[in-house]
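Q: Entry one of two.
A:
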Amino acid sequence: MKNKAISKRLTIQVMGFMLSFSVVLLLANSLLLKPLYYHSVKTDMIEGMELLSAIEYSDDEWRSAIGNLDPGHSYDITVEQFGEIVYSSSREIGIRGPNDFDRNDRPELKKPFIPTQFVKDWSWINQTTQLGTLYDEKEGTHLFIAKMVIDEETTIYLTQGIEPILNSVRQANILLVSVTFLFLMIAGFMVTHLSKRFTRPIRMMQTHVGELSKLNFDHELIIETGDELENLSTDIHQLAIKLKDALNTLQKQNIQLENDVESQRKFISNASHELRTPLALIKGYADEITQGFVKDRDQEHKYIKYIAEESTKMKRLLNEILELSRIESGYMDFYYENIVLKKAIENFIEKYYGFIHERQLNISLELIDGIGNVDPVRFEQILANYLSNAGKYCSYTKNITIRIEEKKDVYRISVINSGQPIPQKIMNYIWDGFYKADEARGTDRSSYGLGLSIVRAIQNVSGQAYGCYNEENNVVFWFDVIKVS
């Protein structure tokens, strides 16, 4: 179904309402004004009769009394006595007293003034008063007539012409139609103009939303009406900003997801490769033994030793994969407590004395007093991975320094080893699982590259920073812990 513009619908509805109002007003003027006027005239005449009935017509002062009641009324008062007109407020007759005219000169006045035989629709108001309607065919006029019998001698008539009101109704209708037509023309122009002005902000918002649906966020929406439309435009603008930010975030997340998928693919590929090597060795040595190719006990014992070593490597590798997966998936709980960092590092060096002695590492400590909030197990795990990494790749001098530095809200712990700097192009990749850092820095092929990945996972869960950078003749690996005041 084809939609109509709001401005057009608004114009049609407003014009329809005004036209309906004008028609109702015209009908009311035509149909109700006449009955209302009739009712008003009848009520006025009845009230006049009540006042006239209170006058004493037996004395000579009754004409003055009637004259005092007459001003301000639209009806005429006529008094008949003994079949003759003795008083009339009509301009045509003009009788105010017995000396107002010569009855011999106007013999027609001796006859009753009101032809009551032609009066229609007589209705009794009370026992002495009747109300009816007279149509004068000669004059072409309508009259309301009220008749009240005072006594056998006196009858009072009130007459009110109703033709003027009919003319007034017709003239009012003509004027009303003319004014209504002019008013509708002016109102139509104004309503059309105002409706377009009113709907302009709506059309602007429609255009803006249409641009947003096309993911075009360059379209600017400015509406200053000071009402709900301005508030709505502000909400749309805020929604556009949030939508743009959400879209940008989603795009970044998609890129990150693609990178994560690629990293996961590489991780699985590298893990398969790392597991394949010890499995191949184990299977080869086992086949040698089971197929009888081993001739003496010493060689058999040597092969079994190789199988045990490769099994240990596989176990360590699988444990590291499982631990990394549990940390990154959030299934591993962390238990934080406040520890003295200096003492914790000294205890760590003492615990790893065998490793340090075996690798002939020269350890120096640059420690300060400080309390950190850490998980002691994860804290030691990070130090162990950094120390193991430093021991593999340090220079022939094998100098390693462990340092504590105080920052604003954290303590930064660094493990520094002498050796060749890490190329900048691979600096960000050494934290990936199974990345072969030894390919660029040494000949030790025993690393599976999960130690630094575990460090990254622990620090991400803790919400603390970590990193690596080169110094002159040194490589520095560091991580932060929360400082306890």
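Q: Entry two of two.
A:
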Amino acid sequence: MGIDLAFVWAFLIAFVVLAYVVMDGFDLGIGILFPLFRAKGDRDTVMNTVAPVWDGNETWLVLGGGGLMAVFPLAYSVVLPALYMPLTAMLLGLIFRGVAFEFRWRTKRWLSVWDWGFSIGSMVAAFCQGIALGALIEGIRVADRAYAGGWWDWLTPFSVATGISLVIGYALLGATWLVLKTTGDLAAKARHIARPATYLTLLGMGVFSLWTPLIGPHYLGRWLSFPAVIFSVLVPLLVLALVAVIISGLNRQKDAEPFLAALGLFVLGFAGIGISFYPYIVPPSLTIADAAASQASLAFLLVGALVLIPIILAYTAYAYWVFRGKVRPGEGYH
């Protein structure tokens, strides 16, 4: 029996999306928390913690979007019109945030404008990512292999709650990243922010986990069937364990533990979403097999992916290695 390339590509796309979430999540979190750091010196240091890596982190977003279009064209053609508004707003937020990131270093008169632009762009991008995720989980109406819903179907209480939860989760990643990368009063303030962000993230994950099975019987049945039921028992315990690691690390003034445990929360949440979706790529209408391109196209693209993805991983790891360590006031990439 041959390898099912559609499911190989589903795994690769999921990996790329997860890489984007965990890497770009903490620098979006930096923007979300930016207004809480009022001194210009603190803001400069905060931005310098992500200056060498933030634009490289967004490589994964481009790769994920392009990969979805190439290998799951039907899913792309359905999801895009269903989520035009939040996805367009997300891209505008990312663009404005990127422009603000560069311009704030080169102006004095408009510094406060670009500071707010950086923060608002980050919040909008994070919130719209959560909106899109929530709308996708609730389901997209499909008829005759095309989107059959309305313009505002993406806007629901569940999608808004998902957007808010993702903003809080990214704020936790940003705060623990600052614990890892800064020193002195700035690191102490980051620890102070990270504690309530941890509890709010736990609350958001709890609400999300309890609400999702109520959306449709396919989710409830999925989580109550074997072997997913094992994961449904283990996940709450693992989440609580990671929350304990974060709080313990913050209390003991550990640098890396809170950030790594916060990443673990996102990995668990992402795994839970994957289990809920399988075997669908656009629930509850399109399965992975339904939406995939031809086997010949998948095989051809897989050759390129097996070359490209390791290269991206290598230069990303090298960038993080070169710019490892603490960022102190007055030091930075700019």
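A: Comment on entry two: The mean pLDDT is 88. The CA atoms of residues 9 and 65 lie 13 Å apart.
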